Amino acid sequence: MPKAKANGLELEYESFGDPSNPTVLLVMGLGMQLTSWPDPLVEDLVGRGYHVVRYDNRDIGLSTGFDHMAIPNLRKVVLLNLLGFKPRVPYRLEDMADDAVGLMDALAIEKVHLVGVSMGGMISQLVAGHYPERVLSLTSIMSTTGNRRLPRATQQAIDALMTPRPDPSNGQAVVDREVNILNVFQGSVHTNDPARLRALAERNYQRSYRPLGATRHLVAAAAAKDRRKLLNTVKAPAMVIHGEEDPLIRVECGVDTAKHLPNAELRVIEGMGHGMPLTVLPIIAEGIDAVINRT
Hints:
There is one protein chain. This protein has 11 helices and 8 strands. The protein has 295 residues and is of the alpha/beta class. The protein has one domain (3-152, 211-292): 3-Layer(aba) Sandwich (Rossmann fold), CATH 3.40.50.1820. It is globular and about 45 Å long. The two termini are 31 Å apart.
């Protein structure tokens, strides 16, 4: 796969479909590689006539890492942020938004239809707010505004996410941990096929395993500002998709996101948790297509 020089980094990316077609740029979430974008979703979008680009965020997958930078104390970062201070962190979500725009520049793509999931939704919101001239539409999936008054994740989801990471050389234990997290995150209707889920976790582990990068992603998210005022300035058509049963980023977060995007449509999916199993992919693809057709 190719790499692009973007924002002073090298970002690993994949491109699908005809580059002369409108581009859908997929931005993945915390600690997740570009391979976590389901291939059937990419194929569906290409079949609808779009050029699709997905990439590894900085510090994850095969993109430039930041292992030379120390990891701040997460509790301290959260506390300082709550008190209104600006904690020192290796990088911020704004830097990751600049990465996305840098990738667009490297690929000579002037404007995109942005699609972000979870932390990728936060990054996409920042791109839409700070670079409105580069964004044709925004789809924010199972993400949030940074509003501190919104409900927190369920304790079960927090416990799963904070499960100690095993020895990196123990691939089976690493995969087991990942599968357990994704199973805890899923909803009651849109569920993951166990064999497919394990195959994806194994594929990701073999491709790249960078737990410290995932931790720095978590620190960047913890240091993030409230984006509600910024979202109020976004004029691009927006689609907000959220699972009704999301245990990590609760459905109220999706409602709040749509509330603060002036030109947004909210689609709450019954029985969907925090994930993209096969059964929900046609619904997501249709939502992305719908907001693009509003531009």
